[in-house]
Amino acid sequence: NTGTVLYEKDAHERRPCGSVTKVMSILLFMEALDSGKISLEDPVTTSEFASSMGGSEIWLEVGEVMTVDELLKAIMIQSANDATVAMAEYVAGSEAAFLDMMNQKAEELGMKDTHYLNTTGFDEEGQYTSAYDIALVARELMKHELVFEYSTIWMADLRDGKTQLANTNKLLKTYQGITGLKTGTTDDAGNCFCGTAQRGELKLISVVLGCTTSADRFSSTVKLLDHGFDNWSLVKPEMETSAYSIPVLNGMERQVQGVVTFDDEVLVQKGSEGNITYEVELAENVEAPVEEGQVLGKVKCMLGEEALCEFPVKAEKAVAPITFRSVLDILFRGLIAP
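The structure assignment produced for this chain is given below.
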């Protein structure tokens, strides 16, 4: 929810990550869906290049047509390389053009230890990422709730039941609140997993890379997620006063109400929820005109000396400036008042 790192070890070390690479590919697919560039019902024709991928696949044949919805199932459940490339070509025209999109998005998200050379996660010299960067892109992907309709499917089929899909995320059946997200396994990367889970309002991301076995990546994920859920909670800030009067200079009104809205929750260690304090910082005064929603100050949520977060204090309504015409209008209304 907040982007806070609760635990890390070698988080910025550049490493291969296998098919966890597809988290970025999937993000761009979701963005294309949200923008209306593509739709779930669109037919996608398999190219010769896409059908040649190998590795984890659904054995797409050249010229075979599947919908975007079917290909997303294959990618999210089966980690299908051929389906990933087919989708990349459909969205961008070619895998090379899609790779440009991936690297551009990585730069936008501040992924400083990531460079993509393919869309699938095959081992390739010069392709790398880090645990921290994967968490960044996973957090962005989690904003697209449609992804969880695929990442939480345990079993599905394609081709009228002729092709069976089984989710590579084995925690779906065993871990409370698990919502995804993506496994990855190659010789260079080892066993990798980006896991997501939610209990109540608290959403967590776990990234483990380079595990020696598949069982280890899942047990390590459980330890990390348990650490988060056992030790941290989200708290809704509460104050006795949430409105403040601020003097207005040269305005039609002498004061404006500044209000603070706590529209986000605060992440704290369990047991310290009752120790949150608030520091209010307001402008001494404000010059008219004042616009509705104009920032007039801020409220800091504090835990001891640590600032957890801050919320803006905004003008509840607009205040117009005093003008010669407005003064005349006031005088005129005063003269004719009964």
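Interim note for the steering committee: The mean pLDDT is 93. DSSP finds nine helices and 15 strands in the chain.
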